[in-house]
Amino acid sequence: MNALPNHSQSTNQPSSLQPLANHFRSFCKRFALITLAFAATGSTATHAQNVPILTPQKVKAVSTDQPTFKSTQRVLRHAVFFSFKETSNAEQIQGVVDAFAALPPKIDTIIDFQSGTNNSPEGLDDGFTHCFLLTFKNEAGREVYLPHPAHTGEFASTLRPHLKDVFVIDYWGTTSDNDQNRELKHAVFFKFKDDADPAAVKRVEDAFAALPSKIDSIKSFEWGKNNSPETHDDEFTHCFMVTFNSEEGREKYLPHPDHKAFVEVLKPVLDKVRVLDFWEDGYKTK
By C-alpha distance, which of 185, 207, 181, 65 is closest to 135? Predict the structure, then answer.
């Protein structure tokens, strides 16, 4: 027996069973939706049990390799060092420094500028005496700066008669919320042996980057590999920039056992090293 009318019957005359059939189909649809929603909720709850809740403290710990310092922005550093001719006097050299410091208002892609004279006690400066650290947001900013008329014109004309040698390293760094009012910069440059094992070089990088967590007089730290498009790097490939807020902080760092242990990791793969320290002398723009 067929409990429902055939197609012709349902088309030509209403059936008393039609409302009941419609109600049954509606109920089935609602039941299916409720079942799916329950399954989805159960799946989400199960998945959530396997995912850690990222509080702000946990996010910070996961997202930075150096939890001591909060990195806020990736920036391009342009580190420049000069040695001057013996025939150039103090006034002429100061004229070069002043001309360099006058560039940021003329070239708006320079977002930060620091300069100072070398005061490293280590004797590894190779005769360089004047230090400059320029910051750009990106490579495009550097591309505006290098050929800019203010850089290649007036400043270059002031520099050229007195310049003995120049050393330039560029690297990616990070801004820090831990900036000091007046910073003592400790700039360290390495060239590794040509046959150095990349794994051994990586151990040096990691060991240096671990020092801030071991030596509390380090107030900020960044490092990077040279990416300068110029040809003044003297074959150095790595720059490590360590910041102190006093000479006492540096005096604590240099003989520190953890620093000495790092040097032992470095020695087997090191070809040459260059070190320059400087107080930023009032030209810091930010």
Answer: 185
Phi-psi region of 142 (alpha: psi -120 to 50; beta: other; left: phi over 0): alpha
Tokens encoding 175: 């801004």
pTM: 0.74
Transcribe 135-173 into DSSP letters.
EESSHHHHHHHTT-HIIIIIIHHHHTTTEEEEEEEEEEE
Residue 70 burial class via C-beta count within 10 angstroms: exposed 0-12, middle 13-18, buried 19 and up: middle
Check residue 16 and report its DSSP letter: T
Instruction: List alpha helices for the chain, DSSP H.
Output: 7-12, 18-48, 56-63, 90-101, 139-145, 149, 156-159, 198-210, 247-253, 257-266
Residue pLDDT, tens place only, 66-113: 334 455 689 999 999 999 999 999 999 999 999 999 999 999 999 999
Work out whether strand 220-225 and strand 184-192 pair parallel, antiparallel, or are unpaired: unpaired
Q: Tens digit of pLDDT for each residue in 236-285?
A: 999 999 999 999 999 999 999 999 999 999 999 999 999 999 998 655 55
* DSSP at 281: -
DSSP β-ladder status, 163-176 and 130-136:
unpaired
